[in-house]
Design a protein that fits this description.
Blueprint lengths: L2 E4 L4 H12 L5 E4 L12 H6 L7 E4 L2 E4 L1 H11 L10 H17 L6 H7 L4 H23 L11 H15 L8 H11 L2 H5 L15
Parallel strand pairs: 1-2
Antiparallel strand pairs: 1-3, 3-4
Helix pairs in contact: 1-3, 1-7, 4-6, 4-7, 7-8
Length: about 210
């Protein structure tokens, strides 16, 4: 059975949980608390799995894969049904483009390690600034690519990246009213079972006060 090293609130871990749920892959979670004990990602044991000291890490098929997009690409290549990437090459490129925009252009700038660097008093303002900048671009792109979801009417890797990032935006109290397309797609996706079972509020390591 695959093993996912995950933290309930990590948006990158959430992406992989959604992908695993979407593809119907049964797996075991090993929680890695990014805050407790000074951060369990810094233990020697975990660093042997991921020298970058980040979650997620997925043990599957005799290998360990880190980086959420690389994990999803591997799942797509080895377990292609249902699809995370469209068959059409142009749509596939658009899905990857949106996924990269979120996974490279927004999320890393407001993750835990960066927020520690900007200092406690600046964290909220910094996170709001980088998310808003990214969402300004993303909203424009989605206005031309979206159907029911990010690219047409099929759930794709772009959607898997979108929902956790919107949750981050809500956590940092970003005003989402300028982003009707993002908000609408997010609402449609959160109604789907795979996004609900993988939600941070429903994980084995979710604190009792945050559970639903």
């Amino acid at each position: 059975k695959p093993i996912l090293y995950s933290y309930f609130r990590s948006s990158c871990s959430w992406r992989v949980r959604i992908a695993l749920a979407l593809k119907g892959i049964d797996y075991e979670i090993v929680p890695i608390n990014l805050i407790k004990d000074g951060g369990q990602q810094f233990t020697e044991e975990f660093q042997t799995l991921n020298p970058m000291k980040q979650v997620p890490a997925l043990k599957i098929d005799g290998i360990t894969i880190v980086q959420s997009l690389a994990i999803m690409e591997y799942l797509e290549e080895t377990r292609p049904i249902p699809r995370l990437l469209p068959q059409d090459p142009q749509k596939r490129a658009i899905v990857r483009m949106i996924s990269d925009l979120i996974a490279s252009g927004i999320q890393p700038l407001q993750n835990l390690s960066v927020l520690k660097q900007v200092g406690q008093e600046n964290q909220m303002q910094w996170a709001q600034k980088v998310i808003t900048s990214g969402f300004n671009a993303l909203e424009k792109i989605l206005q031309s690519t979206a159907g029911k979801y990010c690219v047409g009417d099929e759930v794709s890797m772009a959607d898997v990246c979108l929902v956790p990032q919107v949750a981050n935006a809500e956590r940092f109290k970003v005003d989402l009213s300028p982003y009707p397309t993002i908000s609408h797609i997010n609402k449609e996706l959160l109604a789907l079972e795979v996004f609900q079972v993988s939600h941070p509020r429903r994980q084995p390591d979710t604190p009792a006060e945050l559970r639903t």
